[in-house]
Amino acid sequence: MRCTTLLASGAALLALTALAGCSEPAQPGDDSPYTGSSIEGAFSLPDLTFTDTQGEDYNLAEDPNGTTTAVFFGFTNCPDVCPTTMADMAQAVEQLDEQQRERFQVMFITADPDRDDPELVGRWLESFDPSFTGLSGSIENTDQAASDLGISIDRPEPEERTGEYDVGHGSQVLVFSPEGDSELMWKYGTEPEDIAEDVTLLLDEEA
User: Which interval of the chain is the signal sequence (predicted)?
Assistant: First the structure.
């Protein structure tokens, strides 16, 4: 799988991780309390509508309901990065108390909507944590959302999307404030304990 580097525009250019499997585990910053990299204000959740696992419309900008939200793009046929990331997120959520869990959500957006319908996404996420929000949408909305958030998606051409195929995608998890503005980025391989600690710090700041 090829590796490319993503650049996101904001107050400054931010070098983000690229295709799945191409990133290194996050390391704590020298002067930051967070393990994740700060991307404060670089992105906002876009005004795009998807379908959740119950078949209902879900607008990325309007429906997180004031929660701190971790967003990950992946696909259910992913052999390694996606299940590992979701398992890590589930372990991190387990370390939060009840009030913290009510203020934090994990959002999975499929990068492979041709194969990942809402029902399949729902069944897949239940094996990690049934509280996770799973979304699928049109190719156009999926690619627009990914582009707006600095996420790379690399899938085969339509005529080649038959049988088994891979979808390249950014392996980073982006964290957004209750107002829908970006806060942190966790690289692939960030430990669940570090994720849980970052979430706790964020929620304490927002309280």
Answer: 1-20
Cα distances (Å, whole numbers) of residue 125 to 49, 132, 158: 20, 7, 26
Query: Which contiguous run of DSSP H or E holds residue 175?
Result: strand 173-176
Phi, psi dihedral angles at 124 (to 5 degrees) = -65, -45
**In 3D, which of 21, 119, 103 has the Cα closest to residue 64?**
103
Residue 4 neighbours by CB distance under 10 Å = 11
Give the per-residue SS3 of 117-153: CHHHHHHHHHCCCCCCEEEECCHHHHHHHHHHCCCCE
Q: Say if 17 falls within a structural domain.
A: no
End-to-end Cα spacing for the chain: 42
Q: Which domain holds residue 202?
A: 35-157+164-206
What is the domain-level CATH number for residue 79?
3.40.30.10
> How many structural domains comprise the chain?
1
CA 115/CA 112 separation, integer angstroms: 6
Are the C-beta atoms of 116 and 110 separated by less than 8 Å? yes
pLDDT one-digit tens code per residue, 95-111: 999 999 999 999 999 99
Q: pTM of the entire structure?
A: 0.86
Residue 85 within any structural domain of the chain: yes
What pLDDT, on the 0 to 100 scale, is given for residue 30? Answer: 59
Q: Which residues are annotated as a binding site for Cu cation?
A: 78, 82, 169
